[in-house]
Write a structure and sequence with these properties.
Blueprint (H helix, E strand, L loop, with lengths): L10 E3 L2 H4 L7 E3 L3 H13 L16 H9 L6 H5 L16 H12 L19 H12 L11
Antiparallel strand pairs: 1-2
Length: 151
């Protein structure tokens, strides 16, 4: 953080020799030349610099965060921001896929069938009616809210 502005998400490179010095040195790795440039520019101008530790694997979210940064509009505005109970959810773009259409049709026909062959799974999987309805909704609608205990 540079003057309370996020400069970069970094990976700490643990070097015990540097950490055990009289004045500890913390090495960090910054990915991406534009991120490095931004961080260095902010560091140069900052009057207060702090390192904030996040206890999560940020790298796992990297593809999602990069995609969100590139979005210029909210693709689900109609479905989320302008939603009302009187509107029927829009069909999912996934329904353009023959494979997804077959899965949805098969589950609608027999919600309690074994999904092993249908989904090419390594073992037998059977859903109860509620789970099957949930899976159909998430595949068939552009937005679905899934709540409840795992299972």
């Amino acid at each position: 953080m540079c003057d309370n502005v996020l400069a970069a998400l970094v990976t700490i490179c643990r070097d015990e020799k540097l950490l055990s010095r009289k004045q500890s040195i913390i090495c960090v790795r910054i990915n991406g030349s534009s991120t490095i440039e931004r961080a260095l520019t902010l560091l140069k101008k900052a009057s207060h610099v702090s390192l904030v530790q996040l206890n999560t694997a940020i790298f796992a979210y990297k593809p999602i965060l990069e995609r969100l940064q590139s979005i210029k509009e909210i693709p689900l505005t109609e479905d989320i921001l302008l939603w009302s109970t009187s509107k029927t959810p829009r069909p999912s773009s996934l329904l353009r896929s023959n494979g997804i259409m077959q899965i949805v049709a098969a589950l609608q026909q027999d919600p309690q069938q074994d999904l092993q062959q249908l989904l090419r799974l390594g073992k037998s999987v059977k859903l109860d009616a509620s789970q099957a309805d949930c899976l159909v909704a998430t595949l068939a609608q552009s937005v679905s809210l899934v709540q409840g205990p795992p299972g």
